[in-house]
Amino acid sequence: MFENISIQALSGLSSGMVLFLVASGMTLIFGALRVANFAHGSFFMIGAYLSYSITQLIGTNNFGFVASLLLVPLVLALLGAGVEFFLLRRIATRAHQYQLILTYALTLIFADMVKMIWGRDNQMVPRPKILDGAVEIFGTPFPTYYLMLIAVGTLVACALHILLARTRFGKILRASVADAEMVGALGINVPRLHTSVFALGAWLAGLGGVLAAPIGSISLGIDSSIIIECFAVVIIGGVGSVTGALIGAILIGVMKAIGILFAPKLAIAFIFIALCGVLIFRPQGLFGGANA
């Protein structure tokens, strides 16, 4: 029984790391720009579909996977920068309701675009051959690809921490969150900073989409499911906290996996039980107020 729980927890940890990649981008955008970006799940979905197209074009081999891993996040970063520059920046001074309506409208537009380009059928991206094996843990085979997801999530978490806590960019970003007008008065181009943060968030969502594509089928609607879990992560971890996003994503991933093992019909409910508990007892989130 212990072996089954451990393997299931590791599986939940791997899915939690994918969720972290997407949610960390969302919490960065929300923390820096104060924009609840409903279109963030669409970036994830587009990333998964682009990964499918690239692997079909180049080949379902190791090179195709690496190419999609490098190219797709960059494409999503450019798309995110365009959304912020041409759309969100124009209504930055208006009430938050305008931003909510705009980003929600983008989800509908992107969903129709995906439907036009890739159709309604579910698509599959095979795992790269180098990661298609398994290792034995407690005598049970565990997919090598899942171990790679855990490793990538850990590396990205460390890189984001260094970026936000140890670099000039991170210091300027934290200062702009505290007082954007003062930062602008010191000669910093705050709008350009916001575009960079939005592009980084979209890059992370695209990376999550590429890594999630070989786990299951790619279909219309995966944007809605991931955005709900991302909001849960942001609320549980605390707005603007990458550390909170990491802990929140791991909690959700492991709880969901363990829930499937013991009570499959209530697995999703465990996430919202945890969410309600945080809202009641610690509404600012587990790491609310943290900058990294």
UniProtKB/TrEMBL annotation:
Transmembrane intervals: 12-33, 40-59, 65-88, 100-118, 145-164, 197-220, 226-252, 259-281
Keywords: Amino-acid transport, Cell membrane, Membrane, Transmembrane, Transmembrane helix, Transport
Topological relation to the membrane, as annotated: Multi-pass membrane protein
Location of this chain's protein in the cell: Cell membrane
Pfam families found in the cross-reference section: BPD_transp_2 (PF02653)
Top-level taxon in the UniProt lineage: Bacteria
Record-linked InterPro entries: ABC_transp_permease (IPR001851), BCAA_transport_permease (IPR052157)
Main location: membrane
Stated family: Belongs to the binding-protein-dependent transport system permease family. LivHM subfamily.
The name this protein goes by in its record: High-affinity branched-chain amino acid transport system permease protein LivH
Species in which this protein is naturally found: Cupriavidus numazuensis
Lineage: Bacteria, Pseudomonadati, Pseudomonadota, Betaproteobacteria, Burkholderiales
Gene: livH_21
